[in-house]
Amino acid sequence: xxxxxxxxxxxxxxxxxxxxxxxxxxxxxxxxxxxxxxxxxxxxxxxxxxxxxxxxxxxxxxxxxxxxxxxxxxxxxxxxxxxxxxxxxxxxxxxxxxxxxxxxxxxxxxxxxxxxxxxxxxxxxxxxxxxxxxxxxxxxxxxxxxxxxxxxxxxxxxxxxxxxxxxxxxxxxxxxxxxxxxxxxxxxxxxxxxxxxxxxxxxxxxxxxxxxxxxxxxxxxxxxxxxxxxxxxxxxxxxxxxx
Length: 243
Description:
Layout lengths: L1 E8 L9 E6 L8 E2 L1 H6 L12 E2 L5 E4 L5 E12 L11 E7 L12 E3 L4 E9 L5 E9 L7 E8 L6 E5 L5 E7 L2 E11 L23 E7 L4 E8 L9
Parallel strand pairs: 1-9, 10-16
Antiparallel strand pairs: 1-5, 2-3, 2-4, 2-6, 6-7, 6-8, 10-13, 11-12, 11-14, 14-15
């Protein structure tokens, strides 16, 4: 079978050079299954691309071939720069996944069912990044300490396959990008008062005592706008002696 169509941005211009893949909606275990296994068994098919990925051409068109009969989701993966001032000249990238016909949540994706040898060439896929928002804020402590490292993760309460992540900067600030409207569980983990070493650099010896903080989570609602000024306060982790 074949799934083909066109990718475009929300302003109508072609979305070129975007990785597109198909994902089976079920597997032998009953859960989602990546198509890459199916494609490799079939030798990739004409134009299937490495690992089942197909890159949209200069007009936004894509074509995924060699698909077994079954039901599929079609997803686009875009690489975008991350907001990470600590990275310096090294630009950290993050990936955004969207599902046809233009949904961020897999639970909202269109299901495409193929019969043996069937070709679907009418898929229109619209990518609207303007509908995604930024969540920013600051992480503090109950013991007057400073949080200088850690991870802030947003997990959608409607569809747990939708997550976004941001790193805590040395000043305690964080930015999580590309967040659609919805209700999320905001979780903070691996928080510490010692900054993480810059990429490619070893951690220098520090005279300060390392302090870890207990994991934290709360509910956060994002409407149709950016969210700033989110304040999180962490308590020191319970110390346990370990060798």
